Amino acid sequence: MVSEWNLRSVLVREELKDTRWYAAQIEKYRDLADYPNGGMCVPLFKAATDSRVRVLLNGVGGDQWFEGCSASNSSGPMAGLPRRICRFYQLCHEMGLPAALRHAGGRLRDAFTQTGAVPRWIASEFARKTSLADRINSGGTAETVEPGVQRLRTLLDSGWTVHANEANERSKSFAAVDGRSPFFDRRIIEFSFAIPEEQRRRKERTKVVLRNAMRGLLPEMVRNRPGKAEFGHTFCQALAGPEARRSFSSLGLGKIGWVDPLAALRMHDRAMAAHSCGRRAAHIWPLWTIFAMEMWAERFVSADTVTAQ
After folding, report:
1. How far, in Å, CA of 266 to CA of 140, rounded?
2. What is the pTM of this model?
């Protein structure tokens, strides 16, 4: 990109933060800390300020509105499932395998097709008292809406999307930088809803309409790149410290009845075991949410207050 457009590049190294940095954020803002993949951008914002750059454009929203939905590119009751699980489920029935295997195949199918379910790490009584299942499914899913459009609706209504954008904006504001997200322009979002799914995704090719629009403007190796950078290691580094392990071993959120402490601890241990072996860790986003909430609750929530409410 630098050579194609004759740009001046500025090398900024990522800066992984420790638990003390996130705790200081909580104290300062009296709110949840940044996400680790946002915290690593602090040096970037500082470099922009030092270079007297006041406005930063980003590509947030490109994935949300134009990545597409894999389920829209297949058909049948197992549309969108990983191929190996689909095949395993089919073989269980075609070969007349024992009932236990057929049951296992059915459970895998159900696990991957389940939507709008209450996360298992949420305490069941807390979910019941707050009618969480109803709130998660409050938008409903019309049978006539294709999966791609339903995915857009879910992302647009997602609390994750709102909070991540707010945390990112907070960090930029603290650095005296004005962040702009062109893909979150209402006209762009409306355009995404209006186009057919094949303009978002065709089999494994995502962001079809964007790639086509950039023909002749981006280098081909960039325009046709199948993947992108992944920053899961920033979450794992923050969750692998002794403070995080102690928190998950004795969750205050479990004591006040918000989180299932055993489920959260198992998730944490499995994720850290995978990370230590060089494998991709699962559930890093909910794990960070639990840890961030735990640090916040330690400072601003008491069990007596929760009981009274």
Report:
1. 31
2. 0.78
